[in-house]
Amino acid sequence: MNTTLIDSDPCALRAWTEGRMIFPELADGRIIGFPADRFRILKAASDDELKKVTVEVNGFALRWEELDEDLTVEGIVAGRFQLPLSEEAT
Questions:
Q1: For the whole prediction, is pTM greater than 0.70?
Q2: Phi and psi at residue 3, in whole multiples of 5°?
Q3: Which domain holds residue 58?
Q4: Which CATH number goes with the domain that contains 72?
């Protein structure tokens, strides 16, 4: 019996924040978290602004309308961040 594994791009079902951490839940059941401070616009955002994250483009992007910021779920999963990890996190 041959089994073919289909490699598909990760997509999010929902997303939320806890403090300065952003958590997308992926369609494959994983929940990943990343610090908002790894992205310039999100780093400057208030906690209230961060909470307004929405899942867009059929789950392939996270969007903050008020901040005019979009992140791809694929980029987040791959660890493509704009800013280095802060000194206090290391």
A1: yes
A2: -120, 130
A3: 22-81
A4: 3.30.2020.40
